[in-house]
Amino acid sequence: MTMVDKADPGEVENDEPTELALIEERKFEKRRKIEAFVIPIGTVICLLIIWQIGVRLFGVPTYIAPAPSDVGETLFSQFPLLLKNFWPTLFEAVLGFITGNLAAVLIAIAFVHSKNAEKAFFPIAVFINTIPILAIAPILALIFGSGLTAKVMIAALICFFPTLVNMVRGLQSVSPQALELARILSASKSEVFWKIRLPSSLPFLFSALKIAATTCVIGAIVGEWIGADVGLGALILDATFNYRSPLLYATVFMSSGLSVLLFAAVTIAERRIIRWHT
Amino acid sequence: MPSGATNQEAATGLPPVAASLTNAYVRFGAFTAIENLSLDVEDGAFYTILGPSGCGKSTLLRLVSDLIPAASGEVNIFGKSTEEARLAREFAFVFQDATLLPWRTALQNVQLPLEIGRKRGVKIPISDKSPSELLDLVGLSGREDALPHELSGGMRQRVAIARALVCKPKLLLMDEPFGALDEMTRDHLNLQLLKIWKETGVTILFVTHSIPEAVFLGQKVLMLASHPGRLREVVDIDLPYPREIKLRDTPEFTRHAAYLRELLETC
Ligand SMILES: Nc1ncnc2c1ncn2[C@@H]1O[C@H](COP(=O)(O)OP(=O)(O)O)[C@@H](O)[C@H]1O
Ligand SMILES: [Mg+2]
């Protein structure tokens, strides 16, 4: 050991500072990561405490604004009820997500391949997009009845437009140079589509899917407001009309949890699929 | 396969021709980008193309590679029309930016030409070297699985060269391929390109805006003039191969460069 050290003192001298620097840097990185978590969580906890104290101090009735402890307690005691209403909404949201995005992707492909299709249908898509979802939901409920279909259609409709626009942009994002390369290789239209256009559109598609992951939950809940006896939307109405404020807050919390869950799923899929930089 | 060019050689005793342009014109609307260009590109030779910016150097390569049509005149590649030559993969193109597909690894990018056109029964020539051997040839062994964004600009351009070689082209068209690289990388790639040229015997048309690069690489320099784009002069560079970087310090090299600079100023 000593022999080696003596034989090559330069190496030791050279290595130690860099290694120390590396360790320092890692510590710094770690601290930054911890801070990124700790600061927002700390803020939330502080706000909850202020809320709790405020409600108790001023004696606000529970049905107007429940204390966080009441909501927490309900979240815990009513969990089976919340979960029973969670699954239908999840199901509607996911089905709507798939339907709306699939339709958007297919129509985007049609638009990119046929300028006439785009000219004919894009204005209609824009028009439908300008109608507030709350206004169009009753119409869809009339058409599709009070069952699952209406909720799925409302969730699908709310996903549709952002994905359509992004997908069209994505499919057109191919560099002219890449198309010249394809031309020199005498690539067919379908080869250009599968090997160049579709992969280039994926980053655009995923940014739309992340939007859709949260809006499809809104769609499902709005659908349930029009008429449903299960689901988080139905539970929100029920809790509101019966002044069960802690339950209302707990349901809202579950709804937001559902959005986070879907958003996280899309983000994980994106990280696995898109490994390149654009 | 006896090409038209070899027949021609047998008949006339002239060297075989890789590409020939006869009174070729290219027009963009009312604008004439190339006017009355006639040229025989000798098979197996290394041509560099110089000219003022906007004189039609890229247009010339795009004309030869069937990316744009001739308004009039004729362009033949190994006795075929440019379209037939394109379908038979007689030529490959290297762009100024590497134009790699960012989601494909280096190796997958090199394989791309082999995956295209296979289903339609187009007979594609294939290099004797496998895609990974071609990556070795351009000095990228061990980086097969790297994605383009993980490679430097010079490395990306080498991947593009390997991709161009994978279908064993007889004619290689290069449009300022090293224009965006630093000088050291450019020198290195110049030497590597000369080595590849010698090993494969491919005919090369190489556009550059650097006079030293044009002299260093080319057997012949095509000097184009602008307004309208036309062939000004074909300059022979009678410097022996293999060429090394220090060739640039010799008086003969300087003489060629000086001549071209003068010519360029009057284009
Ligand atoms: N697609 C096009 N449409 C109209 N004009 C073009 C087009 N491509 C090139 N040109 C014009 O033709 C001339 C030659 O262009 P180019 O071949 O790119 O020049 P360079 O010698 O710099 O490569 C330029 O004046 C350019 O503006
Ligand atoms: Mg150019």
Please characterize this protein's 3D structure.
The complex is a heterodimer of chains A (278) and B (267). Chain A has two domains: 1-59; 68-273, MetI-like fold. Chain A has eleven helices and no strands. Chain A has helices spanning 2-7, 9-58, 68-77, 79-113, 115-130, 133-144, 148-171, 176-184, 189-226, 232-241, 245-273. By secondary structure, chain B is an alpha/beta fold. Chain B folds into two domains: 43-66 and 81-90 and 171-267, 3-Layer(aba) Sandwich (Rossmann fold), CATH 3.40.50.300; 98-168, no CATH class. Chain B is 35% helix and 24% strand. Chain B has helices at 4-12, 57-64, 82-87, 106-115, 131-137, 153-165, 183-200, 211-217, 251-265; strands at residues 17-28, 31-42, 46-50, 72-77, 80-81, 91-94, 171-175, 203-207, 220-225, 230-236. In chain B, helix 4 packs across helix 5 (131-137) and helix 4 (106-115) packs parallel to helix 6 (153-165). Chain B is globular. The chains are: A mainly alpha (278), B alpha/beta (267). Chains A and B meet through helix 8 and helix 9 of A and strand 6 and helix 4 of B. Magnesium ion (MG) is lined by residues 57-58, 175 of chain B.
The share of residues in helices of chain B is 25-40%
Biggest pleated sheet of chain B: 6 strands, mixed
Q: Would you identify the CATH architecture of the largest domain in chain A?
A: Orthogonal Bundle
CATH superfamily of the largest domain in chain B: P-loop containing nucleotide triphosphate hydrolases
Distance between the termini of chain B: 41 Å
Please work out how many helical segments of chain B DSSP would assign: 9
Order of helices and strands of chain B: HEEEHEEHEHHHEHEHEEH
User: Uncertain segments of chain A of ≥5 residues (pLDDT<50)?
Assistant: 1-14
Number of strands of chain B: 10
Query: How would you describe the shape of chain A?
Result: flat
User: What bound compounds does this protein have?
Assistant: adenosine-5'-diphosphate, magnesium ion
**Which value, in Å, is the CA radius of gyration of chain B?**
18 Å
Distance N to C terminus of chain A? 50 Å
